[in-house]
Design brief:
- It is built from two helices and 23 strands.
- It is mainly β.
- The chain has three domains: about 1-40, no CATH class; about 40-130, Immunoglobulin-like (Sandwich); about 135-314.
- Strands 11, 12, 14, 17, 19, 22 and 23 form a seven-stranded antiparallel β-sheet that branches. Strands 16-15-18-13-20-21 form a six-stranded antiparallel β-sheet.
- The longest helix is centred in the middle third of the chain and has 6 residues, at about 170-175.
- The relative contact order is 0.17.
Length: about 325
């Protein structure tokens, strides 16, 4: 009989067997639906590519399938559904989105063609990554207090200074950061030097660079103060506009100031990091220190301030 004739059988008995003229195959009724003797359910594979809100459901393609139907649930027995019988097309992977972070989901899939829709595959699970935020987190620390001119960013023993620092994406992630808008940073000062810093400026950018051997351009200014006087403890620098960190790039932070006098350095808590993750210069009587590159005294070392960031995750 044809597929239409098969489907018109009222209340078919479980185990009823027919030959389908349209599909040229044997079909049987399993008590719930018509199944094929030669067209089998797909095999679900392990999930991949998990993020806080998504993962990829994967399965092995079935010969003869024209589309697949996907179920997703937080219940291993599919007592409730996040996705129910979604036609995802003739594919063998599907990006399940709009999920909750730190949650395990279960999925199964059915193959279909013009004749039958198979029973469900085996059940596999996918777990979204741990929830995170950017409310306020510290990269590294607690650090060691240092007032050396080639280590502290507040080296006011000199008129002028400009320093850039690399923070790796791995360090950001390990600290609990997720992609989102950075809105402020803080530096921890253990002892205050003098004078105050004229034109203290902070710039930032996402970068592929892991080390620095020269000043890197393309930064965006996020903070400036005509005269900034540090205090002991965490000093806060609220950004004039948020900086979006994408979760995969390294961060480059630049700090500079341009004084006309000098006295003593402020001591700032720093971590010892990999070589060349800090680069900069310091000297006297520099014009335009925040864009100057030909420093007579330059620094490329393993000391980087302990940075604390505020922000809003996405």
């Amino acid at each position: 009989m044809t597929t239409a004739q098969r489907n018109a059988i009222p209340s078919p008995a479980e185990g009823l067997l027919i030959y389908n003229l349209n599909c040229k195959e044997l079909n049987y009724y399993n008590g719930t639906s018509w199944q094929s003797m030669s067209f089998f359910p797909p095999s679900a594979l392990a999930a991949s590519g998990s993020t806080m809100t998504s993962f990829f459901a994967n399965w092995i393609s079935v010969s003869g399938a024209t589309t697949y139907y996907l179920d997703v649930s937080t219940s291993p027995v599919f007592a409730t559904f996040v996705i129910n019988n979604l036609n995802v097309g003739n594919v063998n992977t599907f990006n399940v989105t709009g999920l909750t972070c730190g949650t395990t989901y279960y999925y199964r899939v059915r193959a279909a063609n013009a004749c039958v829709t198979t029973v469900s595959s085996n059940t596999m699970s996918g777990t979204t990554t741990t929830c995170c935020s950017l409310v306020q987190k510290v990269v590294g620390g607690p650090g060691v207090a240092t007032s050396n001119s080639d280590q502290t960013p507040f080296s006011t023993f000199w008129h002028d200074a400009r320093t850039q620092y690399i923070i790796s994406a791995a360090e950001m992630t390990a600290a609990g950061f997720c992609p989102g808008n950075l809105t402020a940073l803080q530096l921890n000062v253990s002892a205050v030097g003098s004078p105050c810093m004229s034109g203290l400026t902070i710039k930032i950018k996402n970068t592929a660079s892991a080390t620095l051997s020269a000043f890197e351009g393309g930064t965006t200014q996020v903070y400036t103060n005509a005269s900034y006087c540090p205090t002991t403890g965490w000093n806060n620098f609220t950004f004039s506009a948020p900086h979006f960190w994408d979760g995969t790039s390294n961060l480059l932070i630049e700090i500079c100031f341009d004084n006309s006098g000098y006295s003593t350095n402020s001591s700032v808590y720093c971590d010892v990091v990999a070589a060349n993750m800090a680069y900069g210069g310091y000297y006297d009587n520099i014009t335009g220190a925040c864009t100057y590159t030909a420093w007579s005294l330059s620094k490329s070392n393993t000391y980087r301030p302990v940075f604390r960031f505020n922000g809003i995750g996405i």
